[in-house]
From TrEMBL:
This is Maleylacetoacetate isomerase. Residues 92-215 form the GST C-terminal domain. Signal peptide: none annotated. InterPro entries: Glutathione-S-Trfase_C-like (IPR010987), Glutathione-S-Trfase_C_sf (IPR036282), Glutathione_S-Trfase (IPR040079), Glutathione_S-Trfase_N (IPR004045), GST_C (IPR004046), GST_Zeta (IPR005955), GST_Zeta_C (IPR034330), GST_Zeta_N (IPR034333). The gene is mai. It comes from Choanephora cucurbitarum. Keywords: Isomerase. Pfam families: GST_C_3, GST_N_2. GO terms for biological process: glutathione metabolic process; L-phenylalanine catabolic process. The keyword Plastid does not apply.
């Protein structure tokens, strides 16, 4: 008798880390239960949620075996190794490294300095608004990302096949749009994102397709 259960995703509709994981789940065709965690009301800091993820961050993921994982990169790698259909990494070892490089540029260099906790703190300790900080930090990060994509991109972020790098790119571009980044400065990033956002998996994973997205944002 199978003891497998439906995987569970704890996430927030606008969290870019949750977003890229949703794309991976859609890409792999994995059925899962979504349990929204509202970051604005502090649900992630509740004792109940900290029993799931002691760091109080999203996403958290309960596997089909009942194991709890956190950190989007670790979860996406787990999905790649556990569900071989529709691979998210190329066979070529150099290309695999390039995919992970793009993921890390976004996840380590761009995303952390404009997430919710950081921009709140910036407003507390400086005269810069959260909008100014987020816009300038993403713009600076995109300057380097655009240059790197000149060398590794094809139709998509790395070559002509969709990889996990595209999940990261799509979610960080969503943040850029939110904070008013001038995307005309980044034609490669824009072209790739526009292509990705025509695909059903990416549309389904969009923040504005999620049940915890406020109706006023969904209509925009």
């Amino acid at each position: 008798m199978s003891t497998e259960q439906t995987p569970v995703l704890y996430g927030y509709f606008r969290s870019s880390a949750s977003w890229r994981l949703r794309i991976a789940l859609e890409w792999k065709g994995i059925q899962y239960e979504l349990r929204p965690v509202n970051l604005l009301t502090g649900e992630n800091k509740s004792e109940e949620y900290r029993q799931v993820n002691p760091t109080g961050k999203v996403p958290a993921f309960v596997t089909k075996d009942g194991k709890i994982l956190s950190q989007s990169q670790a979860i996406i790698e787990y999905l790649e190794e556990t569900y071989p259909e529709r691979p998210m990494l190329p066979k070529c070892t150099t290309k695999r490294a390039e995919v992970r490089e793009i993921c890390q540029i976004i996840a380590c260099d761009i995303h952390p300095i404009q997430n919710l906790g950081v921009i709140k703190r910036i407003e507390e300790i400086s005269s810069m608004s959260k909008e100014e900080w987020a816009k300038s930090s993403i713009t600076l990060g995109f300057e380097g990302l655009e240059k790197r994509l000149e060398h590794v991109s094809g139709t998509y972020s790395v070559g002509d096949s969709i990889t996990m790098a595209d999940f990261y790119l799509c979610s960080i571009v969503g943040n850029a749009h939110r904070w008013g980044v001038d995307m005309s400065l980044f034609p490669i990033i824009t072209r790739i994102n526009n292509t990705l956002m025509t695909l059903p998996e990416f549309i389904a994973a969009s923040p504005f397709s999620q049940p915890d997205c406020p109706e006023e944002l969904r209509k925009k």
